[in-house]
Amino acid sequence: MERIPIAPRPRWRETVEALGLVWHTANGQPYWNEAAYYRFTAGEIDEIETATAELQRLCLAAGQYIIDRKLFPRLGIPPWVVPLIERAWEEEPPALFHGRFDLGYDGQGPPKLFEYNCDTPTALFEAAVVQWDWLEAVRPLGPESDQFNSLHERLVAKWRDLSPYLRSQVVHFTHVDDDAGEDTITVTYLRDTAVQAGLTTVPILIDHVGWDAGRHRFVDVDCSPIDVLFHLYPWEWLVHEEFGPRIAECYGAMQWIEPIWKMLWSNKALLAVLWEMAPGHPNLLPASFEPPRDGSYIRKPLLAREGANVTVVKDGRVIAETGGEYGEEGFIYQALYDLPDFDGNLPVLGSWIVDGEPAGLGVREGGLVTGNLGRFVPHAFVR
Amino acid sequence: MKTKKLGLLLVPAVSAALLALGCGDDPASGARSRACVDAQGRRVADNLCNDRNNGSSGYHWYHIAHGGSFSSASESHGAASSPHPSGISRGGFGSSAHASAHAGG
Predict the structure, then answer these.
(1) How close, in Å, is residue A351 to chain B by CA atoms?
(2) Which pLDDT band, with edges at 50, 70 and 90, does B97 fall under?
(3) Which of the four, A126, A209, A241, B56, has the lowest number of CB atoms within 10 Å?
(4) Which secondary-structure segment (H or E) carries A183?
(5) Which residues in chain A are closer than 8 Å to B33, comparing Cβ atoms?
(6) How is residue B84 annotated by DSSP?
(7) Where are the domains of chain B?
(8) Does ipTM exceed 0.85?
């Protein structure tokens, strides 16, 4: 694993913007950073892929572990949601079964899980489309340049597989009206993959979703019932908002993608559960609900987004922390991991799952905590 | 190296609409914009959304906010969270996002 400086394409902004990456710059700094790329060996890619598959297997086991031991209160899940989660876990309703494992990796030891973003993962469009376009244009390792990236094909294939099991061939896609366009384009990209699978898609902003009290159904802007809803809007928000209880009221009448059982995995408590279930596993970092005695750990809220409210403590001293509004549900404590340092650039791997299988890789660089200002850097390897 | 054609249709249209509407403008302006789109989310002429006769054709406004300003259901569908005479209420989802203007992670 190496970080290779490289000249950006002369008109890289226009190029990535034309693809749809309208949030390529944040606070005056490139978010999309093609002034470097990460070069992996084929063996390293195989190791990341194998670890990703193993982590997915562990998460499946952890989901069953949580349900069997009824650990829902430790996850801060409201009691009224539990029957829905148990039902969805049992029935396995349609799901893309996708997500992004954030991993620490230095090319020396095994990849280590930081967290699993499997409910509303972003950085998908960059990983699936923009870095692939970069690879084809730049070919940094010659004609044989390759990339761990089958995201697009797998997403289209998964929608196609799901199609017969959907209540309707019209799928609504909802998201927030975000400033930067990141959520809008991420969801639009997923709509494109669904369209390529033969589905009809309808966009709707989350606050435009309506509740029809007469029909006991969620409806779109035309007052048509929503049969299938893809949501880039986290379950923990959905269930706590005003319409939350309506989810149970119409649960049997519509399909949510991803399903509500993703609340088991999109919660940092998963990290403590995984360690409790598989202590010493080479792809896990020690994690618990109590701070470790050695006084070195990273404290993460059970429910948070993009590195918010994280505190890094080393030898009892806070060395980094981020602000935010999370933490009400509690925290977990995870062992520290020394990220590889490439001249001050600290990469975190985002290893993607689609349909439960490894599907691609994105690399983001940041500081001790990778938040939403982390830079996305493309990668390449030669098989 | 393999090559692949991704064949995206919606992303270029929506991103072009975002850019045309000033995505990246000074967030302090608090400006908000909207685009008229069809049922598939493709941008169409604004007059199609303005024409009440097109109400059942799937044309609707797609709101794009800047500076943390959010479109509310009230603008086009009645007061948020309050029931419309039809028995349909809107705005019961989305409140958690107002602090972050972003829901992905």
Answers:
(1) 14
(2) confident
(3) B56
(4) helix A182-196
(5) none
(6) P
(7) 11-23+31-92
(8) yes
